[in-house]
Design a protein that fits this description.
Chain A: InterPro entries: Peptide/Ni-bd, SBP_5, SBP_5_dom. Chain A: This is ABC transporter substrate-binding protein. Chain A: Keywords: Signal, Transport. The complex is a heterotrimer of chains A (about 525), B (about 280) and C (about 325). Chain A is built from 16 helices and 20 strands. Chain A is of the alpha+beta class and about 525 residues long. Chain A folds into three domains: about 30-50 and about 190-260 and about 485-510, D-Maltodextrin-Binding Protein, domain 2 (3-Layer(aba) Sandwich), CATH 3.40.190.10; about 65-180, Dipeptide-binding Protein, domain 1; about 270-480, Dipeptide-binding Protein, domain 3. In chain A, the strands form four sheets. In chain A, strands 1, 2, 9, 10, 11, 12, 13, 14, 15, 16, 17 and 18 form a twelve-stranded mixed β-sheet that branches. Chain A has a four-stranded antiparallel β-sheet with strand order 5-6-8-7, covered by helices on one side. Chain B is mainly α and about 280 residues long. Mean pLDDT of chain B is about 85; it is low at about 275. With about 325 residues, chain C is mostly helical. Chain C starts with a helix and ends with a helix. The model of chain C has no long low-confidence stretch (mean pLDDT about 80). Classes of the chains: A alpha+beta (about 525), B mainly alpha (about 280), C mainly alpha (about 325). Chains in contact: A-B, A-C, B-C. Chains B and C meet through helix 3, helix 4, helix 7 and helix 9 of B and helix 1, helix 6, helix 7, helix 8 and helix 10 of C.
Chain lengths: ~525, ~280, ~325
């Protein structure tokens, strides 16, 4: 079975990128050519183009080419210099000194200085900006610029994840001073491509920036056509209207892989999914009930059913190659009888428990997954129903008002575990929309924030995962694969996926004649 | 070649048979088919073309399309009927009062109705559904409200026409109360028009339910409704066209039946509209 | 003249009511724009700040005043989710929708009128039965079903036409037509069936009237009778029905544009609704209602021009 083979490869290459298709392999040895316009069938609609204000993956995916962050991460997720040529942290972990790369040009022709860095960070931490990552700068006491190429940031208290949070554009992006007003419609940065125009809902046009500090890109232009219908995207690729598409419909991947005229890039993980309980809903206050629901779910079958097997089940949401990935955790197998027994121990006989599963149509596979789980819930004697919510409604009902019983969501597996564990499971966490309050998790996640030694920190996060699993705070399901389908003429695809698994970077991509 | 009149008249009969069959399916399917047959999944037979085991094929979760379309009938018919009923309940008094009382009341009410008519019905239903949140009951309300102005307008026109009839004049001079005149003289005379319009509205309501579900704002999964089935088929159109064809044909047959029946009914009840095919 | 003045005055009143209804309904939409902007990263402090700066805390009447004032002075504000100024955005999307609405209307009229006349002339013969049956089936199929069938046949099956996307006619007229054809057909086929039925019904009525019999008795040839006398009298009613269908079309484009990924008004309105982008919903719903009203007004005026008797009543 093709899927099994595929899974085996992905498992072996956890966190890596796989290329299918002989033509790319053969031709990738030839020298890159400059020129050409690449037409990309983008799976989502870009929204607010202001890198600080936008919270959507779709926009970040495109803007990755327009912007650069002060630091970044390498393949092993280690923070490395980027726009800062070097950086150092004081002994006490409170002072960060960045030495900027000289001669970095912005698209508006100006040269980057420490003033731009200060402007960008100040803009991000100013509540009036409405920056989604503004809490990254919560502990910042001062930002100083002693000279044009030096930035000194002083924290009021230790914040171990600070540096690695600056390794992504959301918080770490550097914009030219005074460009705040125009970022929302015509973003300016210092990335390899200039933003040319966006025809809203239709396409975004990017043009090579010849003065890019990392050397000019090969492509003249990238046109991102926003095609949200998966089958339409696929047809475009097949007919040659598009050079490449991201997010191949899961049920078609095997077919595209087998097509000698197309290449497939698959990587792992794109993101991860979990099932959530509202810990304020009376029945779910009882850990036995939560555990019972965990026992109702056959994760492998669910993965096959909702994602046509395009992913891998996991009990740990940490980035698979990162130090905090807890490989010792295993998911609970499906056991309907055990689930029933746990429910009756908790005082719920068959038909006593009534739950509504809220799933968002923003992720169609969540709707499929909910329908499959519903069958199992009913088998275990739970009276369950589904409510499909638009993204807006999901956000307002589940995320903000916390008005739900069961739901599911996906998250990026960022390299910085604090972003995951503190935000999601700490009582005070910004993403704790399940009203979870577990003293052990609170203590551990707080401890990790002030633990500077990386190995020690990783251990702490593994303990957090153990508690999340033992107490069934949520049910972690799987990592989902990311995929790109492309014409054989598209080269350099092994460099396209940004370490965050979502963003695409066209700097080293080129078109063979 | 002349088409025999009997055949032309049979249009109404065919329509009636189609409508009756669909209503029977909607009523009886839940009695004879266990409800969970529509949600039972078979992961080994996903998007299966029609076979002996699944005469109409299966959908993306391996659910039998025959059971889904049969059990889906009740959802679609129920929503459409309830919505039309609701639009009659609101639209009938509005139209009657407006047409009978006339003057300022008529002006104000009809100005409002005309304004509402400027909003495309589907847009109105979509917005209302977004306001109320998507579930079965709200879908009914959304479609019901969206259809009310049409009905009110037609009833008002009819009431206006009947109110000017000599016998109504006569009843008025005889000292009958307005209420009595409306109930005993006007209502019976506008009923044919109401019935015809309801049949046609029912056809539109079926389409509207399908449209709303198609956009994800109608019936909720895993319940089967025809619109929801068509929505789910979108991503598998080229691989498994039967997933769209099965519910699509069900909608088409029902609406066709209603239209044929409605046409015949109009010819029979409303002699002025003769000739409408 | 006073008819026109009357009509325009009542139009202004209707527009005002449309604006009030649009504003009221959209304001009771659940969900919050501030939340949509911040997505999964929203936190209470940032939300509160954003709400304040967006003016979401002001009383409704103040918000309505600000909104209608802006609409009247051409300042339609920005889409909150997409950050684009609304007026140019709507203009651009309205052009796209106008393309398929006009295209489908032309297809429908060009086919429906001769077909309806033909059926009426051969009333109750096989030609009539064929045309009437076909149009009955036509009005009974949902437009998105037409859309799906067209995609299956012309895009997937035969590969003749693209199944998605919008191209600006100013950039590439041929490409624009190719992309607009399938959605226009999906919109137009049902409309065509409806208009065929209307034309047939109207023509049947007219052909049975006294003056037609007189014309025939005078020895005028049948072609002249049907097309000059018959159709001339049918044009008014048929046009009225066609005009009324503009409203129906603007409802249908929501489904059809989303099916064909055709980024026009319908698509935009649906996106705005999904995203709870209130200013965008308000503006696009208002514009659609205004356009529908305008279409009806134009039809009315044309009707008067075609048939002077109306002015008397």
């Amino acid at each position: 079975m093709k899927r099994r083979d595929f899974l085996k490869t992905t498992t072996a290459l956890m966190g890596g990128t796989i290329l299918y298709g002989a033509p790319a392999m053969a031709a990738s040895h030839s020298a890159p050519v400059t020129g050409g316009t690449l037409i990309w069938g983008h799976s989502e609609t870009t929204q607010n183009l202001d890198m600080h204000q936008t919270g959507t993956a779709s926009t970040g995916r495109v803007l990755q080419n327009v912007h650069d962050s002060i630091v970044t991460v390498d393949k092993d997720l280690k923070v490395i210099p980027n726009l800062a040529e070097s950086f150092e942290q004081s002994e006490d972990g409170l002072v960060y000194t960045f030495k900027l790369r000289p001669g970095v040009m912005f698209h508006n022709g100006k040269t980057m200085t420490s003033a731009d860095v200060k402007f960008s960070f100040d803009r991000c931490r100013n509540p009036d900006t409405g920056a989604v990552n503004f809490e990254v700068f919560n502990n910042v006491a001062s930002i100083e610029t002693p000279d044009d190429l030096t930035v000194i940031i002083t924290l009021g208290q230790v914040n171990a994840p600070f540096l690695s949070r600056l390794a992504e554009n959301g918080a770490g992006v550097i914009m030219p001073e005074g460009s705040g007003e125009v970022q929302g419609t015509t973003p300016i940065g210092c990335g390899p491509f200039k933003f040319v125009r966006r025809e809203f809902g239709n396409e975004v046009e990017l043009e090579r920036f010849d003065d890019y500090w990392g050397g000019p890109a090969y492509l003249d232009k990238v046109i991102a056509r926003e095609i949200t219908e998966p089958t339409v995207r696929l047809t475009g690729l097949r007919t040659g209207e598009l050079h490449m598409i991201n997010d191949i419909p899961a049920d078609r991947i095997a077919e595209i892989e087998a097509d000698p005229n197309l290449q497939v890039v698959a990587w792992f993980p794109l993101n991860w999914d979990f099932v959530n309980f509202n810990h304020d809903y009376e029945p779910f206050k009882n850990p036995k009930v939560r555990e019972a629901f965990d026992y109702m779910i056959d994760k492998e079958v669910l993965l096959e059913g909702a994602l046509w097997g395009q992913g891998k089940t996991t009990a740990s949401p940490s980035y698979p190659t990162s130090a905090s990935y807890n490989a010792a955790l295993t998911q609970r197998p499906q056991d309907i009888e055990k689930a029933k027994a746990l429910l009756s121990e908790a005082g719920y006989g068959p038909g006593d428990l009534k739950v509504v599963f809220k799933a968002t149509t923003n992720y169609p596979y969540h709707i499929e997954a909910a329908q499959i789980m519903l069958e199992w819930f009913r088998m275990a004697g739970v009276d369950a129903s589904i409510e499909q919510l638009t993204w807006a409604d999901w956000l307002s009902q589940c995320w903000v008002d916390k008005d739900f019983q069961i739901t599911m969501m996906n998250f990026f597996t960022l390299w910085e575990p604090d972003f995951l564990y503190y935000s999601l499971w700490n009582t005070e966490g910004a993403f704790n929309y399940r009203k979870i309050s577990n003293p052990m998790v609170d203590e551990l996640t707080a401890k990790a924030r002030v633990t500077v030694d990386p190995a020690e920190r990783a251990e702490v996060y593994k303990q957090v995962q153990q508690v999340v699993h033992d107490e069934t705070l949520d049910v972690v399901l799987w990592f989902r694969n990311g995929t790109i389908g492309a014409q054989p003429t598209v080269m350099g695809l092994d460099t396209i996926v940004h370490p965050n698994g979502s963003n695409l970077r066209f700097h080293k991509v080129w078109l063979a004649a | 070649m002349r088409i025999p009149a009997a055949f032309r008249r049979s249009k109404g009969l065919i329509g009636a048979i189609l409508v009756l069959s669909v209503f029977l399916v909607a009523l009886l399917a839940p009695v004879f088919i266990p409800e969970d047959w529509a949600t039972q999944m078979d992961m080994r037979a996903r998007l299966s073309p029609p076979t002996w085991a699944h005469p109409l094929g299966t959908d993306q979760l391996g659910r039998d399309l025959m059971y889904r379309v049969l059990l889906g009938a009740q959802t679609s018919i129920y929503i459409a009927s309830a919505a039309v009923l609701m639009s009659i309940v609101i639209g009938l008094p509005l139209g009657l009062i407006s047409g009978y009382v006339g003057r300022t009341t008529d002006n104000v009410l009809m100005r409002l109705v005309d304004t509402l008519l400027s909003f495309p019905a589907l847009l109105l239903a979509l917005t209302i559904s977004a306001v109320l949140g998507p579930n079965l009951q709200n879908t009914i309300i959304a479609i019901g409200i969206a259809f009310t102005p049409f009905l009110a307008r037609i009833i008002r026109g009819e009431a206006l026409r009947v109110a000017q009839m000599p016998y109504v004049e006569g009843a008025r001079t005889a000292g009958n109360s307005d209420f009595r005149i409306i109930v005993h003289h006007i209502l019976p005379n506008i009923m044919p028009a109401v019935i015809v319009q309801s049949t046609i509205s029912l056809a539109f309501a079926i389409l509207a339910e399908a449209g709303l579900s198609f956009l994800g704002l109608g019936t909720q999964p895993p319940d089967a409704s025809w619109g929801l089935m068509i929505q789910a088929s979108r991503d598998y159109l080229d691989r498994a066209p039967w997933t769209a064809l099965v519910p699509g044909v069900a909608v088409a047959v029902t609406v066709l039946g209603l239209n044929m029946f409605g046409d015949a009914l109009r010819d029979a009840l409303d002699p002025r509209a003769k000739g409408g095919s | 003249m006073s008819y026109l003045v009357n009509r325009l005055l009542s139009m202004m009143l209707t527009l005002f009511l449309i604006s009030v209804i649009t504003f009221t309904v959209t304001n009771i939409l659940p969900g919050d724009v501030a939340m949509m902007i911040m997505g999964t990263q929203s936190n209470p402090e940032a939300l509160a700040g954003l709400r304040q700066s967006l003016g979401l805390n002001d009383p409704l009447i103040v918000q309505y005043g600000r909104w209608i004032g802006g609409m009247l002075t051409g300042d339609w504000g920005n889409s909150l989710v997409f950050k684009e100024p609304i007026a140019p955005l709507l203009l651009q999307k309205m052009k796209a929708s106008a393309l398929i609405v006009l295209f489908s209307m032309s297809i429908a009229l060009v086919c429906a009128v001769p077909l309806g006349v033909w059926a009426a002339v051969h009333a109750n013969r096989w030609q009539d039965t064929a045309a009437s049956s076909a149009s009955l089936v036509g009005v009974s199929l949902p437009d998105f079903f037409w859309g799906i069938m067209l995609i299956l046949l012309f895009a997937r099956g035969l590969g003749w036409l693209p199944s998605s996307g919008f191209i600006d006619p100013a950039d590439d007229i041929w490409g624009a037509m190719r992309h607009a054809l399938l959605p226009s057909l999906a919109l137009g086929l049902g409309l065509m069936a409806h208009l065929t039925r209307m034309t047939r019904a109207t023509m049947t009525g007219i052909l049975n009237q006294e003056f037609i019999r007189v014309a025939r008795a005078k020895g005028l040839d049948e072609g002249t009778v049907v097309w000059r006398y018959g159709l001339a009298n049918a044009v008014g009613p048929v046009m009225t029905v066609a005009g009324l269908q503009v409203g129906y079309l603007f409802g249908s484009i929501i489904v059809i544009e989303s099916l064909f990924n055709f980024t026009g008004m319908g698509w935009l309105t649906y996106q705005a609704l999904l995203n709870r982008d209130i200013p965008l919903i308000q503006a696009s719903v208002f514009v659609i209602a205004a356009v529908v009203m305008l279409a009806n007004l134009i039809v009315d005026l044309l009707y008067v021009a075609v048939d002077p008797r109306i002015r008397l009543s």
